[in-house]
Amino acid sequence: MAGVDNVGQNGLSYVDQLKKLQEQKKPDEVTGKQDLKQEDFLSLLTKQLSQQDPFKPVSNDQMIAQMASFATVDGIGKMNSQFENLNSSMTSNQALQASSLVGRDVLVPGATGVKKDAGSMAAMVKLPQSIDNLIVRVENEVGQLVRTFDVGAKPVGDSRVEWDGKDQNGNALPAGKYKIKASGLMDGKNNEFEVSTYANVNSVLLGKGDGNVLLNLAGFESPVRLAEVLEVGKA
């Protein structure tokens, strides 16, 4: 069985001819892709067989290797298609499971949260070590300090804090966005700690083909990825 010469009569190598063939392929009218299919490789192989130098044939091993590469390319294409289908199925399943979060509170990164009418607002403070006195400050949407209160001693790890929604004089503040800040003495120095806030889930969205499931949160302009949720509140 004759093989395929690495360089055809036109002086182009096998790889160069592949590149030339791909450049000549017209873009798909729908996707705009220029992918070479298995029949393109076979067409090129047939052309090379007809143009090879009969005095310099390539070994059968090289011929078999090229045929094996065709099968590998075709197999990879099918595998990619199967992975896309699997990803779509997993995303739909995640969205179905996430739908149970609608109406529930979730903990998301960020110190800014939303206070409901005549309601309180909860947050989670991450402490790198235990402290004797945790101080919480609450700022309104324009950055004005509206409340400061002491939480007391807290151990290392996550500590839940809750603001009753009132100012320093005990007056209930209107609904809206507020920022929770937490600080305390650690090794003799005042430190600011990482804060996450709770928000209520309004609806669930599928991502734009990227496999992400998004949550629309009450009072938030942009959705949050399900993967970012740190905790789910009790039903």
From TrEMBL:
Organism encoding this protein: Vibrio aerogenes CECT 7868
Task performed by this protein: Required for flagellar hook formation. May act as a scaffolding protein.
GO biological process, one term: bacterial-type flagellum organization
UniProt entry keywords in alphabetical sequence: Bacterial flagellum biogenesis
The family this protein is said to belong to: Belongs to the FlgD family.
Name used for this protein in its record: Basal-body rod modification protein FlgD
Keyword Transcription carried by entry: no
Coiled-coil annotated spans: none
FlgD/Vpr Ig-like domain boundaries: 119-184
Gene coding for it: flgD_1
Chain segments annotated as transmembrane: none
